[in-house]
Amino acid sequence: MIEFTTLGMALFGIAAWAFPLITLKNKQNLSMSHILSFTACNISLCFMMFHVYYRVQTHDLSALMDTMGFLLITSFILILGTVGLNLLPYFSKIKRLP
Hints:
mainly alpha; 3 helices
């Protein structure tokens, strides 16, 4: 069970960052990319909550205390990275004045 939540966190986190990068490269539909990116980010955060819930249900509080700081930092980085990468196409359209 715990392996699937870890794998889900990683895969959906990578997908949340991959969608805006693919859109930036291919100049495709931005709104669909934003929807997919934020959906993947939310699913990854849900997998994090399932991970915490599993640790609480199995009364593995020492592992929960060990991993809680890491989960906090990674969720913060995931959210900041997703928002930043989704804003990147808008900043790349701004023309620089000479």
